[in-house]
User: What shape does this take?
Amino acid sequence: MSEDSSRLLACEVPGPLGDMVRALPLVQETQHHRVIHSRVLVVDAVDGTQMVVACLRPPTDLPALHEQTRDAIESALLAERCAPIDSSEALPPDYRLLRFASYIDVPGMERALRAFGLKEVRKTGGGWPKAEAHLRGEWQSLGLELPDVPRSRWEAEFTSVSPALRETLSQARKAGRWSGAPWGSRPGELWKRISSVLGLPQRRPSLDVLREFEQEYISTTSGKIRSLPAELFQASCDLVGLITELQFNRRTCWAEAAEMDNGLNPPPHLQIERGSAKMELPIGLVVLRWWIMPLAAGEKPACLAEWLEETLKSL
Assistant: This one.
């Protein structure tokens, strides 16, 4: 398996992440006890860069399948967006597809996977041969056997980042606009930098600023995973911290997302205080689920600014 053509992303993303903490014991289990393979493959194929997830064992039930699939996909999406933004590195390519290969038959699988935009496909060409070859190689490296072909194949599309935005972000990297510091080490800096890069008005951070940012840069397309570059993802999490501190006068601590022993950076996290009351806000996971994970057909996008206002007023 070539390191250039396939990067292995461990599903483990430690930190105070609420629901995601449940994923940590799964990562420690042996392959024989897992339903979803513990690594998500990223493979460059003829039809674009793809994220590949595999179902290897019969689940106890559909909720268990849904939960393990969710943890794998969310952890991989977070890992891609939480590394420090380094101007010495080129802007990574957009993902084109999420591919899900099931090597077992699971009645009602569609119900467990629909929340991720996954739909069953009958095609076997395109990037599927390369994805399946990488899965076999990964599995064989563990001394285990994998069937030659999956019992079912599923795909979900990613929305595309506009060429204009990609060019702007690419030029900002070439111009050395990013320091490479981990999220949370310099509160407010990431929002200041992205505001400058995007040419946003210099305004005091507020719910209105967050609302306008959401309207301008967050896709409302349903049925697809919504692409959000790391620069915008990290800066928006930084903005939420500034809003809690400056507009709502809550004492706010940014958890520095320094690289861990496994080479990953934990997602953005805030601790918010008001008097003796404290709130742990896994803002990286919140933004991921609010702005990146797919909307259902006909679903009206909820406003993150409104949720944040209600949440902070309750503290």
